[in-house]
Amino acid sequence: MLRSLASLARTASSATVPTCVRSLHSPAAVSLSSVVPTSTAPGKSPRILITGSLGQLGSELAKMLRAKYGKENVVTSDIRKPDVPEDGPFKYIDVLNYQQMEALIVDHRIDWVVHFSALLSAIGEQQPAKALQVNIQGFQNIVDLAKVHKLRVFCPSTIGAFGPTTPADNTPDLTIMRPTTIYGITKVHMELMGEYYHNRYGVDFRSLRYPGVISAESLPGGGTTDYAVDIFHHALKTGEYTCFLSEKTRLPMMYMHDCLKGTMMMLEAPNEQLKQRVYNLAAFSFTPEEIAEQIRKHVPLKVAYRPDFRQAIADSWPRSLDDTNARQDWQWSHDYDLKTMVGEMLTKLRRHYPAVGKQ
Fold first, then answer.
1. Where in this chain does the record put each NAD-dependent epimerase/dehydratase domain (predicted)?
2. Residue of 181, 214, 219 lying closest to 288 (CA atoms)
3. What is the pLDDT of residue 222?
4. Is the pLDDT of residue 166 over 70?
5. Which of 108, 117, 137, 337 has a CA that sits 20 to 30 A from residue 359's CA?
6. Per-residue pLDDT tens for 86-108?
């Protein structure tokens, strides 16, 4: 692929890198001192690009990054245009178009890329060919650009990267990974390719395996854990909910506040703190029955259980995650448990359903 003259000017020379640190998938891991540095100078705010920024996580992370680093230093992008004007620069762009992505990175002097563009688990099973294209080729473009332009790359992974043969309780960072969904397969590919580019070329690649993420700020987006958001809206709107998972299905979950906190910590962590490139991120686990019980302490709620194709997906995932390495290496800790998360979700969502009061 031909490179523009602007990109050639920023190309880093290849370097052979020694081995020394813990790696999830390869015994050969790059020396921390040999990681190709990003182009951010000491004391200078990084210039950050977020792909897939109109999704659940991207919109919230953009607010945090802009508050810390300045509106003009955070460029958001997506394949669709925002419903309301962005509070900072926004670019309509397709991550599958390498030339457009490179022009954006060069023109805006990007240092860090947060790559959220992806098709999630349930949608991926309905559109597997599209999921393969977006999730694999999209990331390949990003990591190739990171190699050329010395970028720091954060791309989330997922509990969907595990499979039915993975130990389901306290699943460790390093274990069997045999996912049964297209989404999970593409995320394992992303983890391995990111580690390869780190080991081979010194790319500053970072990833967290997210559990289900619960947020009051956006509607569900096609994931298997989305019932844990949808149930709040139905509880406040109608007092009734039909769940697509069985009442005993236990999955790892996390409140958006903690997901954003962990992402910021991982994105900003000094390289010397990172003993591996991919970490589990955990907070708490629950079943549909347990979250319904907590919600009933605040508002009436009737729940019917009618499992669909997403039940098989959930059954292949861990019931809980072991994130000891994240807590030890870069001092990760979560703030919310099930009880406090439910209380805050209901408080935030009541403004959309003012007729509903407490029991």
1. 48-282
2. 214
3. 73
4. yes
5. 337
6. 899 999 999 999 999 999 999 99
| Helices of type H across the chain | 5-8, 56-69, 98-107, 121-126, 128-132, 138-149, 182-201, 227-237, 256-268, 288-296, 310-315, 324-329, 338-349
Identify the bridge partners of residue 302 per DSSP, sorted by sequence position. Answer: 240
C-alpha 194/C-alpha 276 separation (Å) is 11
pLDDT tens-digit profile of 53-62? 998 899 999 9
Residue for token pair 């891991």: 29
Q: Look at residues 56, 58, 94 and name the one whose alpha carbon lies nearest to residue 74.
A: 58
The dihedral through the CA atoms of 316, 321, 325, 326 has a sign that is positive
Report how far residue 261's alpha carbon sits from residue 240's, in angstroms, rounded to the nearest whole number. 32
Nearest Cα residue to 50 out of 152, 168, 183: 152
Q: Tell me what pLDDT residue 40 has.
A: 62
Using alpha carbons only, give the angle 86, 266, 192 rounded to the nearest 5 degrees: 100
Q: At which residue do the structure tokens 């790696």 appear?
A: 23
Residue tagged active-site, from 183, 227, 255, 336: 183
Q: Which domains does the chain have, with CATH numbers?
A: 46-211+256-282+320-329 (3.40.50.720)
Q: From CA 95, how far away is CA 147, in angstroms rounded?
A: 16
CB 353 within 8 Å of CB 237: yes
Unique residue bearing structure tokens 């390719």: 193
Exposed (0-12), middle (13-18) or buried (19+): which is 71, by Cβ within 10 Å?
middle
Q: What share of the chain is helix, strand, coil (3-state, %, to 5)?
A: 40, 15, 45
For residue 17, count other CB atoms closer than 10 A to its CB: 19
pTM here? Answer: 0.86
State yes or no: is 183 an active-site residue: yes
Query: Which long-range contacts (C-beta less than 8 Å, at least 24 apart) are formed by 337-342?
Result: 337/283, 337/284, 338/253, 338/284, 338/286, 338/290, 338/291, 338/294, 339/294, 340/255, 341/214, 341/255, 341/284, 342/291, 342/294, 342/295, 342/297, 342/298
- Contact between 89 and 76 under an 8 Å Cβ cutoff? The reply is yes
288-296 vs 338-349: helix axis angle to the nearest 10?
60
Residue type, 234: H
